Structure formats: structure tokens, C-alpha cells
Amino acid sequence: MNPEHLFKLLSDPTRLRCALLLHRELSLCVCELTEALELSQPKISRHLAMLREGGLVQDERRGQWVHYRLHPSLPGWVVEVLDSARRSDWGELTVNADGRRLAAMTIRPSIERCGA
């Protein structure tokens, strides 16, 4: 991955929010991202597909659920960029608000329920 490619992937606020929340939470299901970002499932899925095709995230099917995480072989500089973005004023406000909505979910897919 090169910087131009990464910044194109993260240029959309929805993709950036997904990446930052995945960076914070390590692994999330599409339904969790939908709830946290308050966006429709098709929109979240479309953006996650772009992040996956771009090599930033990896998906894993667990029963009926698809979980996403940052790709484990990302170069260190990519993780540093995400760390810096998350620590920015915008990142703190946005990721914390998304995280509060995520934490308020009453039913979240667990590993046991996901068939893993």
C-alpha cells in the first residue's frame, strides 16, 4: 500500500469512520458498524467492500455474520496514520460518538452466536 492509495481510501468520511472504529474495536460486524455510524447496511457494506478491495480491511464470515478488522499485514506507517487520525480533535469526537452508539447496542453478535 502506498500513501496515495491509503488517502484515497480514507478520503470518504464513512470509510474513515469505519477504519477508525475498527482500529479502536479490533473487529466488528456489519450490523455493529451500521448501528454505530447510523447508516444503512447497504451503504456500510459498499464502503467496507471498497476498504477490503483496497487491502485496508479483512473480512471473516462467522455463520450469518460478516466481521471486519484491519488487515493484519498493514505496514506500520498505515497504523501510525490511523493512530494520528483517531487522536485528532475530529477523530476523538467522531470515534467516541460512534463508540457510544456501539456500546448502547442491546444485542451484539458474539463469537458464540456467530458460529465461530
Share in helix: 55-70%
Per CATH, which architecture? Orthogonal Bundle
Uncertain residue ranges = 111-116
The count of DSSP E runs of length 2 or more, i.e. the number of strands, is 3
Q: Compute the gyration radius: what is it?
A: 13 Å
The end-to-end span amounts to 30 Å
User: What's the level 1 CATH class?
Assistant: Mainly Alpha
Strand order in the largest sheet: 1-3-2
Keywords: Arsenical resistance, DNA-binding, Transcription, Transcription regulation
GO molecular function: DNA binding; DNA-binding transcription factor activity
Protein name: Metalloregulator ArsR/SmtB family transcription factor
Pfam families: HTH_5
Report on this model:
This is Metalloregulator ArsR/SmtB family transcription factor. Keywords: Arsenical resistance, DNA-binding, Transcription, Transcription regulation. InterPro entries: ArsR-like_HTH (IPR011991), HTH_ArsR_DNA-bd_dom (IPR001845), HTH_MetalResp_TranReg (IPR051081), WH-like_DNA-bd_sf (IPR036388), WH_DNA-bd_sf (IPR036390). With 116 residues, this protein is α+β, with helices and mostly antiparallel strands. The protein has a single domain, classed as Arc Repressor Mutant, subunit A, CATH 1.10.10. Strand 2 and strand 3 form a beta hairpin. The longest helix is centred in the C-terminal third of the chain and has 15 residues. The C terminus is likely disordered.
